[in-house]
């Protein structure tokens, strides 16, 4: 019986990991074969490859292509117990996490990686009209609404009643908003061509609204401009310096840069503007930043609790640069992965009376896709855009996708989509979900 | 401009088809290129290959593998308009169908193919505890419940509390019930093996309950016995002559053949027992049979209305046999397809002053799969079971699956599943859908 397959003894330290996104999953892997018992808790049964979630929302990929059951992925890790459970609170004093069903799970070491959720900046009533994109359920909701909007327009008797169903507003010009807007334009102009008899889907309007002065603010200004030009070539209207001040069922109210107001009649809205840390952060009773993220130290610890780590989108972490300055760690998957690994390694190091060097974020650059053959890449020393960036984006995403088979599947789906313009997952699962037939 | 691509003139007769299952889809195809305008109405945007729906419910296939957008499938049929709309009533006198949104669509000729729904024999309160399997939404509900039951058991502290989550009851011993029970046993014994730490999924109990004296009543008695033996080899308990008299959240009450009562504690129940025709049948105001099906004549017409046809699971149709006797048409996909084709051809024949010969059902036999390498086939002159029947079943289903690409995809998924015992679609989309964490 070797160490790898031996059942861990109950006397080993118990590491609890909350959340199996990129941060939690990477932390879990570090403990493989280590003399600890690990319990990984997630509200869902799958790890989700979130960078491709917009492809599920836009019918390009099916859900299983980007999601894999956690316990299947980690079945060989004998010191790991995976529990599908909803953690509702963390009790630092008693060193336990509390589940929605009332159970409490004690820990010796805790890594919290519960991610982020949408933020509507205090306008929670906007949520039902402009859903966001964080989970597979969100993606199915959006997919049903996008596809049903075209279906609904086809059933209506005249152009005036059809128009609001053929207007799509994407709110937020970050990578998700840009991907959604570009793909929506592609669907309208290519995928659905020749399939309708009463409407011309190519006449659908896709509007991307960004409050700041440029889209893709994490990129260099020239690249933002390139991305805007590429989106416009795809048929997307890009409005920068334009704030959303109201969202209801029938449309969106905008405040333009010059302070004017504008009303857009649009049945379908997508929220890609704001995120906030998981509400679990508040139960830690420690200082949070404005986005509700936990302010952590150079080892991802919370103040006064070297046994509690917070990583990923839930944490406001800094990286110690070579010049001694501290830079915020961006809320992207490499940041979450590196922080998760750091926390896990620090736990193991401390068990041996050592310590890791302070966390340093390794920045591989920024990458955003816009649509068919269009993307922007900023690798620090080199920036490029267009088809080359799109190929690079494709390669990176397929490469990092979890599980060999998913990679093959996603690649096959994309090759098919590229040559045929078709999207194989154009399925509205809940017939009434996006249709709202009883309404005007 | 040739006849095939010309826009149909509004003076052409208007054929309305309600429902795009096997019957409605086949009828639609017959009208390709014919001098009619066709409007096809369906509540969903996709045609569903229902014989493989249980594979979606049991995580073997993703939804897009067995569902295709109707308007994409028929995009080349220029005389066809597809509308995603919910038909709520048929007005024979005014010759129009009414939609949920209040619109009325007039017809010259009408083919109603709205299918069937679950019947709980007057116990509609059973539905939430024992969902059935007719739509993709049903399949997702079942998938979430099946997978979440194992997840829930893993979170519980002792065998007594876990047991009800590891008991699965399938109600109804027809093809769907047999497929579900066999696949569930395979999941418990093979797919999930070695992935749990606290429970042994292989100890899950799968119970198949059938009210009559044998399962697969459409087959010969020897084949029912073979199917029962194959199920038992897979680990399924088969109970025949056993009626369900109660279903609640925590379990099922049975009445055994000798009149005794038995209570089974089981959190997960699947309803595969009863179907009833679409409630749309009642709005036709014509004689119905006990299952709510419309009694139609030898051309699928309702009494006194040669312009109204009902086909598929909604119709109680008979076949004129060679010996002059009439036999009921079984509620299987070949029956619906043949009846749909017959109705459409009869419409075209009557437009030319002719008539089709009375409907004769061509019976290709019966086929039911049980699980890995197990099936039964009855081709009339020949009966076989086991591995050969399973290979035959596989071939037939992949062959008939709509769309070349879906065939390749399904075949690849199955080849993978066969050699690895894995099921790629093990995704619980709504984390709380099947889990009910707040309950005991």
Automatic annotation (TrEMBL), chains A, B:
Instruction: Cite the FAD/NAD(P)-binding domain residue spans from the record.
Output: 14-322
Outline the extent of the External alternative NADH-ubiquinone oxidoreductase-like C-terminal domain: 365-419
Extract the PANTHER family matched here.
EXTERNAL NADH-UBIQUINONE OXIDOREDUCTASE 1, MITOCHONDRIAL-RELATED (PTHR43706:SF47), NADH DEHYDROGENASE (PTHR43706)
Q: Which residues cross the membrane?
A: 382-402
Q: Which reaction does it catalyse?
A: a quinone + NADH + H(+) = a quinol + NAD(+)
By what name is this protein known?
A: NADH:ubiquinone reductase (non-electrogenic)
For this protein, the Enzyme Commission number is 1.6.5.9
Annotated GO MF terms: NADH dehydrogenase (quinone) (non-electrogenic) activity
Natural source organism: Roseateles aquatilis
